[in-house]
Write a structure and sequence with these properties.
mainly alpha; two-stranded antiparallel sheet
C-alpha cells in the first residue's frame, strides 16, 4: 500500500506540477526574502522559537526517508548508501544544528515552519521512490556522487559553524572572513547544493534530481538576499565576493 502511494509521485503530471512549484518558489523568493534568520519580520502570523522551528521543519525529512528504506526491506548497496547519506545529513540538521545556534530569543514564523513541513513531506515521498526501484548502478557515478556529497557536507557544516561562532565575540552580525568566505558570501548554501547533487548522482533517478532543483530554487535566492543584506549593512563588505557560486554569481 505504501509503495503504491509512492508510485503516484512518479507520475509525469505530478512531477511537472512539482517543478512548476519550484519555479514559482524561486521567483517568489527572488521577489521577497524568506522571513527567517536575519530576514525575520512581522506580518507572517504567529512565531515560535527559532530552534524549535528548525526541529519541526526537518523532522518529516529525518523520519520519512529512513522509514521508507526500512519498509522497502531492500539490501541493494546503492539503497543502503543513499539511506546512510540522507540519515547523516538529517540527524545533524534536525537534532544537532538547531541546538548549536546562538540565536536565543529569536523567532521564526509558524507559517514558514508549516510550509517547510509540507515541503519536506512531499520531497521525502519523491526521494523515497528510489527504494522501490531497481537502480541501474554506475560505479563511477556512485563514486563521484559520494565524493561530491562528502565535500559538500564538509563545506556546508564547517561554514554554518564558522558563521555561528562569529557570535562568540560579537552578539550581532559580523563580516565572515577566511576560507570559502573570501570567494562567496554563502558557502553553507553552496555546500548544500553540492551535497544534494552528489546524492542525485548516486541515485540518478527523478526523485533526488527534483530535490536538487528545489534546493537550488530555495538557496540561490536566499544567498542573493544574504549577499545584498551584507552590502546594505556593511559599507566595507568585500566588493569582489560573489553570493553563492565562486567567480559566477
Ligand atoms: P545563515 O547563513 O543565514 O545562518 C546560519 C547561522 O549563522 C544562523 O544562526 C545565523 O544567525 C548565523 N549567522 C549567519 N551569518 C552570520 C554573521 N554574518 N554573523 C553572525 N552570525 C551569523 O543560514 P540559513 O538560515 O540560510 O541556513 C541554515 C542551514 O540550512 C544552511 O546549512 C542551509 O544550507 C540549510 N538550508 C537548506 C535548505 C534546503 O532547501 N535544502 C533551505 C534553507 C536552509 P541568524 O539566524 O540570527 O541570522
Amino acid at each position: 500500500m505504501f509503495e503504491s502511494f509512492l508510485t503516484h509521485f512518479s507520475r509525469t503530471p505530478v512531477i511537472l506540477i512539482w517543478v512548476l512549484l519550484a519555479l514559482a518558489a524561486f521567483v517568489g523568493s527572488l521577489l521577497t526574502s524568506a522571513p527567517y534568520g536575519r530576514h525575520f519580520r512581522d506580518g507572517w502570523g504567529p512565531a515560535i522559537s527559532n530552534s524549535l522551528g528548525w526541529v519541526l521543519m526537518e523532522l518529516p525529512a529525518l523520519l520519512l526517508v529512513p522509514v521508507s528504506f526500512w519498509l522497502s526491506q531492500s539490501t541493494n548497496i546503492v539503497h543502503v548508501i543513499l539511506a546512510t547519506m540522507w540519515s547523516v545529513h538529517y540527524i545533524h540538521r534536525t537534532l544537532i544544528f538547531p541546538f548549536r545556534l546562538r540565536t536565543k530569543g529569536k523567532q521564526m514564523p509558524l507559517s514558514v515552519v508549516l510550509m517547510a513541513v509540507g515541503f519536506n513531506f512531499i520531497n521525502g515521498c519523491f526521494v523515497s521512490t528510489v527504494f522501490f526501484m531497481d537502480l541501474q548502478m554506475s560505479g563511477s557515478l556512485v563514486l563521484l556522487g559520494i565524493l561530491l556529497f562528502i565535500i559538500g557536507m564538509i563545506i556546508n557544516i564547517s561554514s554554518d559553524y564558522h558563521l555561528i561562532n562569529l557570535r562568540n565575540a560579537n552578539q550581532g552580525y559580523a563580516i565572515p572572513r577566511g576560507r570559502w568566505f573570501e570567494m562567496i558570501s554563502c558557502p553553507n548554501h553552496f555546500g548544500e547544493i553540492l551535497e544534494w547533487t552528489g546524492f542525485a548522482l548516486v541515485a540518478n533517478v527523478t526523485g533526488p534530481w527534483l530535490f536538487v532543483i528545489w534546493t537550488a530554487a530555495n538557496l540561490i535566492p536566499r544567498a542573493l538576499s544574504h549577499h545584498h543584506w551584507y552590502h546594505e549593512n556593511f559599507p566595507n563588505y568585500p566588493k569582489q565576493r560573489k553570493a553563492i557560486f565562486p567567480y559566477l554569481l
